Amino acid sequence: MGKKIKLGILGGGGDSLIGILHRVASAMFDKYELVGGAFNIELQESIDFAEEIGIGTERIYKDLDTLIAKEKSLPEGERMQVISVLTPNFLHFSMAKKLLENGFHVICEKPMTTTYEEAKILKKTQEKSGSIFAVTYTYTGYPMVRQMKEMVASGAIGDIQKIDVQYYQGWINPIIHNKEERSSIWRLDPEKSGISCCIGDIGTHAFDMIEYVSGLQVKEILADLNYMYEDNAMDIDGTVLLRFSEYVKGVLRSSQIATGEENNFSVKIYGKNGGLKWEQENPNYLYLLKEGEPMQTLKPGHEYNSAFSLDGTKLPPGHPEGIFDSMGNIYKGVAKAINGEKIYDGEFPTLEDGLRGMNFIEKTVHSHQQGNVWVKIDD
């Protein structure tokens, strides 16, 4: 086995769900070694957390500037090579930009930035640096999502006619109806979260998924968002009509007030000769529909799947794989890119995906604010 890639993490300390997801994912294929970072705002909390998860504290830093200065003072072969940015949204841009400018590879949580303009600046910075940049649209790492992508591309369902994607959660419902509570969480604070909550948080996952599995780009959108209360500045629910072309259209439904829902993310693509359906809460099943034929169920690990799907499958057929595995596949793809290995098209979401995600978020809010009108998505 080759030398492991040295990984640093910003944020993700304490009981952060996203923190443990990234740490487990990075360890999954023995490609990375977590060597330090800045897990919390308070240095002592970061040190305590490092001790708790069993890594040395000599490379735990009080802030990003200290991390960059100290790491760049080390011999090149000992430095952190890639940094994962797991902080709240408003810190993504400044941190990622500074890391790129100093020669680090970056794995960034979504949304990549808080504005489309920031995303365009980041794109130019990355092009100049030559660094690898991944945005963790996690669900693209599922083996059966990758199988879906390959089947669409191979013409298994014919020319696409209709796309329907839904991402429903209910976690904001008990918060939004309490004025004090809804004023206290960062996801409903525009200063920390950006211009959108629901679309920015989970709608962007749905948007990326649509373009990923279909191979098409959304050209125009019409959005209708719900803010629930006049004093709430952030959308918590929305429906977006999509135009891919004159004859290919779709709908994106996203909600965080779908009472009782946990993480109900599903994507359906219908073509001239068949359809494909996938649901995140049952990720091992990809359903193939054909006119006049029984529905087929495809599962991971079988030889009938594509090489890309099998490359992301770690267990024999019948053994469930989950979100840790999906994120692990993204980290694996980034490692292959850093090491100069051959990668499949779509092994990890790129900065370009993050850029389009920010474009979508802003255009969705703009469409709603202008009275639910059609607006163009930039090429």
From TrEMBL:
Residues 145-276 form the GFO/IDH/MocA-like oxidoreductase domain. Residues 19-137 form the Gfo/Idh/MocA-like oxidoreductase N-terminal domain. InterPro entries: Gfo/Idh/MocA-like_OxRdtase_N (IPR000683), Gfo/Idh/MocA_oxidoreduct (IPR051317), GFO_IDH_MocA-like_dom (IPR055170), NAD(P)-bd_dom_sf (IPR036291). Pfam families: GFO_IDH_MocA (PF01408), GFO_IDH_MocA_C3 (PF22725). It comes from the Bacteria. PANTHER family: CONSERVED EXPRESSED OXIDOREDUCTASE (EUROFUNG), OXIDOREDUCTASE. This is Gfo/Idh/MocA family oxidoreductase. The lineage of its organism: Bacteria, Pseudomonadati, Bacteroidota, Flavobacteriia, Flavobacteriales.
